Amino acid sequence: MGGRSVRKQRILFIGAGRMAEAIFAGVLRTQKDYIEEIVVANRSDLARLHAMRDQYGVSVTTDWRDAVAKADVVLLAMPPQNHRDVLTQLAPYIKGQLVMTVAAGIGIGLLEETLPAGTPVVWIMPNTAAGIGESITLFTCGRHVEDKQRDVLNMVLAGIGEAVECTEQQVHDLTAITGSAPAFLYRMVEELELSAQGYGMAPETARRMVAQMIYGSAAMLKTGADPADLRDSVTTPGGATAAGLRVMDERRFSEMMQGAVEATNARAREMANE
Ligand SMILES: NC(=O)c1ccc[n+]([C@@H]2O[C@H](COP(=O)([O-])OP(=O)(O)OC[C@H]3O[C@@H](n4cnc5c(N)ncnc54)[C@H](OP(=O)(O)O)[C@@H]3O)[C@@H](O)[C@H]2O)c1
Protein backbone atom coordinates (compact mmCIF):
# COMPACT_ATOMS: atom_id res chain seq x y z
CA MET A 1 0.00 0.00 0.00
CA GLY A 2 1.34 3.42 -0.99
CA GLY A 3 0.26 4.95 2.32
CA ARG A 4 3.49 3.85 4.00
CA SER A 5 5.53 6.67 2.47
CA VAL A 6 2.87 9.29 3.12
CA ARG A 7 3.54 12.17 5.50
CA LYS A 8 0.69 13.28 7.74
CA GLN A 9 -2.09 14.86 5.72
CA ARG A 10 -4.52 17.71 6.28
CA ILE A 11 -7.72 16.81 4.47
CA LEU A 12 -10.47 19.36 3.91
CA PHE A 13 -13.94 17.98 3.19
CA ILE A 14 -16.26 20.44 1.44
CA GLY A 15 -19.65 18.93 2.20
CA ALA A 16 -20.51 17.31 5.49
CA GLY A 17 -23.12 14.78 4.48
CA ARG A 18 -23.34 11.02 4.58
CA MET A 19 -20.52 10.39 2.15
CA ALA A 20 -18.09 12.79 3.83
CA GLU A 21 -18.80 11.13 7.16
CA ALA A 22 -18.43 7.63 5.73
CA ILE A 23 -15.02 8.51 4.26
CA PHE A 24 -13.47 10.34 7.17
CA ALA A 25 -14.87 7.79 9.64
CA GLY A 26 -13.19 5.03 7.62
CA VAL A 27 -9.92 6.92 7.25
CA LEU A 28 -9.79 7.86 10.93
CA ARG A 29 -10.52 4.29 11.94
CA THR A 30 -7.66 2.71 10.00
CA GLN A 31 -5.25 5.44 8.84
CA LYS A 32 -5.02 7.75 11.85
CA ASP A 33 -1.21 7.69 11.70
CA TYR A 34 -1.31 9.42 8.32
CA ILE A 35 -3.73 12.15 9.36
CA GLU A 36 -2.63 15.53 10.70
CA GLU A 37 -6.09 17.07 10.66
CA ILE A 38 -9.48 16.57 9.10
CA VAL A 39 -11.51 19.72 8.51
CA VAL A 40 -15.17 19.35 7.56
CA ALA A 41 -17.20 22.19 6.01
CA ASN A 42 -20.80 22.79 5.04
CA ARG A 43 -22.68 26.01 4.45
CA SER A 44 -25.14 26.13 7.30
CA ASP A 45 -25.87 23.02 9.33
CA LEU A 46 -23.94 23.87 12.50
CA ALA A 47 -25.66 21.19 14.57
CA ARG A 48 -24.35 18.50 12.21
CA LEU A 49 -20.85 19.96 12.21
CA HIS A 50 -20.77 20.07 16.00
CA ALA A 51 -22.03 16.49 16.26
CA MET A 52 -19.22 15.40 13.90
CA ARG A 53 -16.63 17.35 15.84
CA ASP A 54 -17.77 15.74 19.10
CA GLN A 55 -17.97 12.22 17.69
CA TYR A 56 -14.79 12.12 15.56
CA GLY A 57 -12.60 14.95 16.84
CA VAL A 58 -12.54 16.61 13.40
CA SER A 59 -12.26 20.40 12.97
CA VAL A 60 -15.34 22.07 11.50
CA THR A 61 -16.17 25.29 9.68
CA THR A 62 -18.93 26.91 7.64
CA ASP A 63 -16.32 28.74 5.55
CA TRP A 64 -13.97 26.33 3.82
CA ARG A 65 -11.91 29.23 2.46
CA ASP A 66 -10.24 29.44 5.87
CA ALA A 67 -8.90 25.92 5.52
CA VAL A 68 -7.89 25.50 1.85
CA ALA A 69 -4.44 27.09 2.03
CA LYS A 70 -3.27 24.68 4.74
CA ALA A 71 -4.90 21.59 3.23
CA ASP A 72 -2.91 18.91 1.40
CA VAL A 73 -6.09 17.36 0.03
CA VAL A 74 -9.44 18.98 -0.76
CA LEU A 75 -12.23 16.44 -1.03
CA LEU A 76 -15.51 17.61 -2.53
CA ALA A 77 -18.36 15.69 -0.94
CA MET A 78 -21.36 17.75 -1.90
CA PRO A 79 -24.02 17.34 -4.61
CA PRO A 80 -22.91 17.24 -8.24
CA GLN A 81 -25.07 20.29 -9.05
CA ASN A 82 -22.98 22.51 -6.73
CA HIS A 83 -19.64 21.51 -8.19
CA ARG A 84 -19.20 24.09 -10.90
CA ASP A 85 -19.84 26.97 -8.47
CA VAL A 86 -17.64 25.60 -5.72
CA LEU A 87 -14.81 24.69 -8.11
CA THR A 88 -14.89 28.22 -9.52
CA GLN A 89 -14.70 29.67 -5.99
CA LEU A 90 -12.01 27.17 -5.06
CA ALA A 91 -9.72 27.77 -8.04
CA PRO A 92 -7.93 30.91 -6.74
CA TYR A 93 -6.97 29.07 -3.52
CA ILE A 94 -5.49 25.99 -5.21
CA LYS A 95 -1.72 25.81 -5.29
CA GLY A 96 -0.86 22.17 -5.85
CA GLN A 97 -3.31 20.57 -3.41
CA LEU A 98 -4.71 17.22 -4.50
CA VAL A 99 -8.39 17.80 -5.32
CA MET A 100 -10.79 14.88 -5.23
CA THR A 101 -14.50 14.63 -5.79
CA VAL A 102 -16.92 11.86 -4.87
CA ALA A 103 -19.82 13.30 -6.83
CA ALA A 104 -21.80 11.01 -9.11
CA GLY A 105 -21.57 12.02 -12.76
CA ILE A 106 -18.73 14.54 -12.31
CA GLY A 107 -15.76 13.65 -14.46
CA ILE A 108 -12.12 14.63 -14.33
CA GLY A 109 -12.76 17.11 -17.18
CA LEU A 110 -14.77 19.60 -15.11
CA LEU A 111 -12.13 19.60 -12.36
CA GLU A 112 -9.19 20.05 -14.72
CA GLU A 113 -10.86 22.78 -16.74
CA THR A 114 -12.00 24.79 -13.70
CA LEU A 115 -8.94 24.48 -11.45
CA PRO A 116 -5.50 25.96 -12.21
CA ALA A 117 -3.50 24.20 -14.92
CA GLY A 118 -1.46 21.33 -13.53
CA THR A 119 -3.72 20.65 -10.51
CA PRO A 120 -3.74 16.96 -9.61
CA VAL A 121 -7.35 15.79 -9.56
CA VAL A 122 -9.00 12.47 -8.82
CA TRP A 123 -12.57 11.26 -9.08
CA ILE A 124 -13.44 8.59 -6.54
CA MET A 125 -16.72 6.78 -6.33
CA PRO A 126 -17.08 4.98 -3.00
CA ASN A 127 -20.23 3.65 -1.42
CA THR A 128 -21.58 4.17 2.07
CA ALA A 129 -19.81 1.06 3.40
CA ALA A 130 -16.74 3.34 3.39
CA GLY A 131 -17.64 4.20 6.99
CA ILE A 132 -16.99 0.62 8.10
CA GLY A 133 -14.00 0.16 5.80
CA GLU A 134 -15.94 -2.04 3.35
CA SER A 135 -16.49 0.20 0.33
CA ILE A 136 -15.74 -0.93 -3.17
CA THR A 137 -14.46 2.31 -4.63
CA LEU A 138 -13.98 3.13 -8.31
CA PHE A 139 -11.47 5.83 -9.09
CA THR A 140 -9.82 7.57 -11.99
CA CYS A 141 -6.90 10.00 -11.95
CA GLY A 142 -6.35 13.21 -13.88
CA ARG A 143 -3.31 13.95 -16.03
CA HIS A 144 -1.26 15.64 -13.31
CA VAL A 145 -1.42 13.00 -10.58
CA GLU A 146 2.10 11.89 -9.67
CA ASP A 147 3.36 9.07 -7.49
CA LYS A 148 3.37 11.13 -4.30
CA GLN A 149 -0.31 11.99 -4.82
CA ARG A 150 -1.07 8.38 -5.68
CA ASP A 151 0.40 7.40 -2.32
CA VAL A 152 -1.98 9.79 -0.57
CA LEU A 153 -4.87 8.54 -2.69
CA ASN A 154 -4.03 4.93 -1.88
CA MET A 155 -3.90 5.78 1.82
CA VAL A 156 -7.41 7.26 1.67
CA LEU A 157 -8.76 4.41 -0.47
CA ALA A 158 -7.26 1.72 1.74
CA GLY A 159 -8.91 3.42 4.71
CA ILE A 160 -12.35 2.87 3.28
CA GLY A 161 -12.16 -0.60 1.75
CA GLU A 162 -11.14 -1.97 -1.62
CA ALA A 163 -10.63 0.02 -4.82
CA VAL A 164 -10.49 -0.51 -8.57
CA GLU A 165 -8.83 1.97 -10.94
CA CYS A 166 -10.98 2.60 -14.01
CA THR A 167 -11.17 4.85 -17.00
CA GLU A 168 -13.33 7.89 -16.55
CA GLN A 169 -16.05 6.34 -18.72
CA GLN A 170 -16.01 3.17 -16.63
CA VAL A 171 -16.53 5.18 -13.46
CA HIS A 172 -19.56 6.79 -15.12
CA ASP A 173 -20.92 3.44 -16.27
CA LEU A 174 -20.21 1.41 -13.14
CA THR A 175 -21.28 3.86 -10.44
CA ALA A 176 -24.77 2.40 -10.58
CA ILE A 177 -23.35 -0.99 -9.69
CA THR A 178 -20.97 -0.10 -6.87
CA GLY A 179 -22.46 3.18 -5.59
CA SER A 180 -26.20 2.79 -6.04
CA ALA A 181 -26.76 -0.95 -6.09
CA PRO A 182 -26.41 -1.19 -2.30
CA ALA A 183 -29.78 0.64 -2.29
CA PHE A 184 -31.15 -2.01 -4.68
CA LEU A 185 -29.95 -4.71 -2.33
CA TYR A 186 -31.41 -2.98 0.74
CA ARG A 187 -34.72 -2.74 -1.11
CA MET A 188 -34.65 -6.51 -1.51
CA VAL A 189 -33.80 -6.86 2.17
CA GLU A 190 -36.87 -4.84 3.10
CA GLU A 191 -39.09 -7.27 1.17
CA LEU A 192 -37.44 -10.36 2.66
CA GLU A 193 -37.79 -8.91 6.15
CA LEU A 194 -41.47 -8.24 5.50
CA SER A 195 -41.95 -11.85 4.39
CA ALA A 196 -40.15 -13.14 7.48
CA GLN A 197 -42.31 -10.94 9.69
CA GLY A 198 -45.39 -12.22 7.85
CA TYR A 199 -44.39 -15.71 9.02
CA GLY A 200 -44.34 -14.48 12.62
CA MET A 201 -40.71 -13.42 13.11
CA ALA A 202 -40.02 -10.43 15.35
CA PRO A 203 -38.62 -7.52 13.29
CA GLU A 204 -35.19 -7.68 14.93
CA THR A 205 -34.94 -11.44 14.35
CA ALA A 206 -36.03 -11.00 10.72
CA ARG A 207 -33.31 -8.31 10.33
CA ARG A 208 -30.64 -10.57 11.84
CA MET A 209 -31.66 -13.53 9.67
CA VAL A 210 -31.64 -11.60 6.42
CA ALA A 211 -28.42 -9.71 7.22
CA GLN A 212 -26.57 -12.94 7.96
CA MET A 213 -28.01 -14.57 4.82
CA ILE A 214 -26.59 -11.72 2.73
CA TYR A 215 -23.32 -11.65 4.63
CA GLY A 216 -22.85 -15.39 4.12
CA SER A 217 -23.78 -15.17 0.45
CA ALA A 218 -21.31 -12.30 -0.05
CA ALA A 219 -18.61 -14.30 1.74
CA MET A 220 -19.25 -17.26 -0.61
CA LEU A 221 -18.92 -14.93 -3.61
CA LYS A 222 -15.71 -13.49 -2.20
CA THR A 223 -14.14 -16.95 -2.28
CA GLY A 224 -14.26 -16.47 -6.07
CA ALA A 225 -17.12 -18.87 -6.65
CA ASP A 226 -19.29 -18.25 -9.68
CA PRO A 227 -22.74 -16.87 -8.77
CA ALA A 228 -24.47 -19.18 -11.25
CA ASP A 229 -22.74 -22.19 -9.61
CA LEU A 230 -23.68 -20.92 -6.16
CA ARG A 231 -27.26 -20.50 -7.34
CA ASP A 232 -27.25 -24.03 -8.78
CA SER A 233 -25.97 -25.41 -5.50
CA VAL A 234 -29.12 -24.20 -3.72
CA THR A 235 -31.49 -25.06 -6.55
CA THR A 236 -32.68 -28.63 -6.92
CA PRO A 237 -34.31 -28.97 -10.34
CA GLY A 238 -38.06 -28.90 -9.86
CA GLY A 239 -37.57 -28.01 -6.19
CA ALA A 240 -38.72 -25.17 -3.96
CA THR A 241 -35.96 -22.64 -4.76
CA ALA A 242 -36.44 -23.33 -8.47
CA ALA A 243 -40.10 -22.36 -8.10
CA GLY A 244 -39.08 -19.06 -6.52
CA LEU A 245 -36.49 -18.34 -9.22
CA ARG A 246 -39.07 -19.11 -11.88
CA VAL A 247 -41.27 -16.30 -10.53
CA MET A 248 -38.27 -13.93 -10.69
CA ASP A 249 -37.70 -14.89 -14.32
CA GLU A 250 -41.39 -14.71 -15.26
CA ARG A 251 -41.53 -11.23 -13.77
CA ARG A 252 -38.49 -10.21 -15.78
CA PHE A 253 -35.93 -9.86 -13.02
CA SER A 254 -33.09 -9.45 -15.51
CA GLU A 255 -34.88 -6.64 -17.35
CA MET A 256 -35.72 -4.95 -14.05
CA MET A 257 -32.10 -4.98 -12.84
CA GLN A 258 -30.69 -3.77 -16.16
CA GLY A 259 -33.40 -1.07 -16.25
CA ALA A 260 -32.48 0.07 -12.73
CA VAL A 261 -28.80 0.37 -13.69
CA GLU A 262 -29.61 2.27 -16.87
CA ALA A 263 -32.02 4.67 -15.11
CA THR A 264 -29.40 5.37 -12.44
CA ASN A 265 -26.77 6.19 -15.03
CA ALA A 266 -29.14 8.34 -17.06
CA ARG A 267 -30.10 10.38 -13.99
CA ALA A 268 -26.45 10.77 -12.95
CA ARG A 269 -25.65 12.16 -16.40
CA GLU A 270 -28.63 14.52 -16.21
CA MET A 271 -27.62 15.84 -12.77
CA ALA A 272 -24.05 16.40 -13.89
CA ASN A 273 -25.35 18.60 -16.72
CA GLU A 274 -27.79 20.58 -14.55
N1 LIG B 1 -24.58 8.64 -0.50
C1 LIG B 1 -23.90 7.77 -1.26
O1 LIG B 1 -24.03 6.53 -1.14
C2 LIG B 1 -22.94 8.24 -2.32
C3 LIG B 1 -22.16 7.31 -3.01
C4 LIG B 1 -21.21 7.77 -3.94
C5 LIG B 1 -21.08 9.14 -4.16
N2 LIG B 1 -21.89 10.02 -3.48
C6 LIG B 1 -21.72 11.45 -3.78
O2 LIG B 1 -21.35 12.13 -2.59
C7 LIG B 1 -21.80 13.47 -2.65
C8 LIG B 1 -22.48 13.82 -1.35
O3 LIG B 1 -23.54 12.91 -1.17
P1 LIG B 1 -24.18 12.71 0.28
O4 LIG B 1 -25.03 11.50 0.19
O5 LIG B 1 -23.12 12.80 1.31
O6 LIG B 1 -25.10 14.03 0.32
P2 LIG B 1 -25.74 14.76 1.58
O7 LIG B 1 -25.81 13.81 2.74
O8 LIG B 1 -26.96 15.43 1.07
O9 LIG B 1 -24.66 15.88 1.95
C9 LIG B 1 -24.33 16.93 1.11
C10 LIG B 1 -23.46 17.90 1.92
O10 LIG B 1 -22.96 18.92 1.08
C11 LIG B 1 -23.08 20.16 1.74
N3 LIG B 1 -23.04 21.20 0.72
C12 LIG B 1 -23.88 21.36 -0.32
N4 LIG B 1 -23.49 22.40 -1.07
C13 LIG B 1 -22.38 22.91 -0.48
C14 LIG B 1 -21.52 23.99 -0.78
N5 LIG B 1 -21.76 24.78 -1.85
N6 LIG B 1 -20.46 24.21 0.02
C15 LIG B 1 -20.24 23.43 1.09
N7 LIG B 1 -21.02 22.40 1.42
C16 LIG B 1 -22.08 22.14 0.65
C17 LIG B 1 -24.37 20.02 2.52
O11 LIG B 1 -24.47 20.88 3.64
P3 LIG B 1 -25.11 22.36 3.53
O12 LIG B 1 -26.37 22.24 2.73
O13 LIG B 1 -25.29 22.80 4.97
O14 LIG B 1 -24.08 23.17 2.86
C18 LIG B 1 -24.19 18.59 3.05
O15 LIG B 1 -23.33 18.60 4.17
C19 LIG B 1 -22.73 13.59 -3.86
O16 LIG B 1 -22.05 14.27 -4.88
C20 LIG B 1 -22.99 12.15 -4.27
O17 LIG B 1 -23.11 12.03 -5.67
C21 LIG B 1 -22.79 9.61 -2.56
Automatic annotation (TrEMBL):
The keyword Plastid belongs to this UniProt entry's keyword annotation: no
Stored SUPFAM superfamilies: 6-phosphogluconate dehydrogenase C-terminal domain-like, NAD(P)-binding Rossmann-fold domains
InterPro entries, per database record: 6-PGluconate_DH-like_C_sf, NAD(P)-bd_dom_sf, P5C_Rdtase_cat_N, P5CR-like_CS, P5CR_dimer, Pyrroline-COOH_reductase
Top-level lineage group: Bacteria
Reaction(s) this enzyme catalyzes, per UniProt: L-proline + NAD(+) = (S)-1-pyrroline-5-carboxylate + NADH + 2 H(+); L-proline + NADP(+) = (S)-1-pyrroline-5-carboxylate + NADPH + 2 H(+)
Segments forming domain Pyrroline-5-carboxylate reductase dimerisation: 168-271
Cellular compartments annotated: Cytoplasm
Keywords on record: Amino-acid biosynthesis, Cytoplasm, NADP, Oxidoreductase, Proline biosynthesis
Pfam families to which the protein is assigned, alphabetical: F420_oxidored (PF03807), P5CR_dimer (PF14748)
EC number: 1.5.1.2
Pathway: Amino-acid biosynthesis; L-proline biosynthesis; L-proline from L-glutamate 5-semialdehyde: step 1/1
Domain Pyrroline-5-carboxylate reductase catalytic N-terminal: 10-105
GO molecular function: pyrroline-5-carboxylate reductase activity
Job of this protein: Catalyzes the reduction of 1-pyrroline-5-carboxylate (PCA) to L-proline.
Database matches in HAMAP family: P5C_reductase
Family: Belongs to the pyrroline-5-carboxylate reductase family.
Protein name: Pyrroline-5-carboxylate reductase
Native source organism of the sequence: Tumebacillus amylolyticus
Origin organism lineage: Bacteria, Bacillati, Bacillota, Bacilli, Bacillales
Encoding gene (name): proC
